[in-house]
Amino acid sequence: MNEHDSELIRQKLINQGYIETNSEKHAEIILINTCSVRKKAEEKAIQYSRQMKNKNKTVVMLGCLAQHKGQELLSISKADIVIGTRSYEKIIDILLDFEKKGTKRAICEDLGIFQLKRRKVREGEFSSYVNIQQGCDNFCTFCVVPYTRGRETSRNAYDILEEVIELEEQGIIEITLLGQNVDSYFDGKYDFSDLLKLLEDNTKYIKRIKFTSPNPRDMTMKVIKTISNSEKLVRWIHLPLQAGSNKILRKMNRGYTKEEYIYQALTIRDLIKDVSITTDIIVGFPYETEEDFYETLDVVKNVKYDGAYMFKYSKREGTPASLFKEQVDEETKGRRLRELIENVNNYIMERRKLMLNREYEVLIEGESKKDIGYSVGKTFNNISVVVKGFFKPGTIVKGIVKEIRGHTPVLNIA
């Protein structure tokens, strides 16, 4: 979401006549788009803002931290301007006002979902984000998103379709639909499954449609069947678990049980051929015992993820969980995280070995940074693979997986 917002803001500034530079030294204005999901991200953003002010730059703080802290962030970060997540529409006016008057200000108004009427695709760009929804009504006790992104708002389905068609006319062949909880998308007529079908049926050149992220409690059989029957919807679902203990899930306010989650994940595996399932998991949430932690490991054993983002619980100011009395100590969090990573990685390796000697169609994303002389791309179930040689980004190649390096399959197209 932040990457997409940054691109839209960049284009809005360029359209106004601002000149982009890749050199921090030559830039007069530094825009910092921030995240508040973890404390470390906030701290890095504030530190960078102070560094830029010490170099006499005009600093604009954007994003979730800006929305969360508002006026307070002006003094904390020494920034000149603070703009919240739903106020980007005013960025030009605010910058021009600052240039004329030098007035520092924070603006966190709700002006709705920020969009450009027509986004210009960069040269060589083949994949694009499309925002379908913003905000969240779930209020998980550990999460700041409802406070930084606001309540759920869905864009009109035909406005989304119009944007996607404009993108494919400029050469985009892959889109990723964005929202804090895409499965709860509803514009008054179309639900999320209807939107997916609308996009598939009314695009000519789009080859792959992805989305992120759903909440397991809102994932419907209708969506699962829509993906199963589609030729464009990527066989990949990011299904955040967060915890495997029913006690912890209740304290997190996740709205589903361990048993319901496992049933849903296994149903997805059963109905969607070659699907990959990835997840988010938090360890060390308040009140988590060893027994609770092993419930999480049991879900990992049952689902066997293809990838996972794994974190130690981080207190977020203003969330209910930050006030819970029984906080888990850092040493225990670290130990549990290491054990979780080991378990998840073992099953990822087990899943990767199933790819050996099978043919895959890979969408090339660019040159591999780790494997010199190789290109990196994604399969139709969103697994990263490497292919020997250099291929233009956006190229689709076919080949057979003959080797697994670490967790990365190697595609042989000879």
Features of the shown structure:
414 residues; alpha/beta; Rossmann fold; Transcription Regulator spoIIAA; 4 domains; five-stranded mixed barrel; four-stranded parallel sheet; 13 helices; 21% strand; globular
Number of strands: 17
Query: How would you write the strand order of the largest sheet?
Result: 13-14-15-17-16
The first-level CATH class name of the largest domain: Alpha Beta
Just name the CATH architecture of the largest domain: 2-Layer Sandwich
- The geometry reads as globular
State the share of residues found in helices, binned by percent. Answer: 25-40%
Count of discrete alpha- or pi-helical segments spanning 4 or more residues: 13
Nearest-angstrom radius of gyration? 22 Å
The number of distinct structural domains comes to 4
Sheet-strand content, in percent, reads: 15-25%
Quick structural overview:
This protein is of the alpha/beta class. Helix content is 36%, strand content 21%.
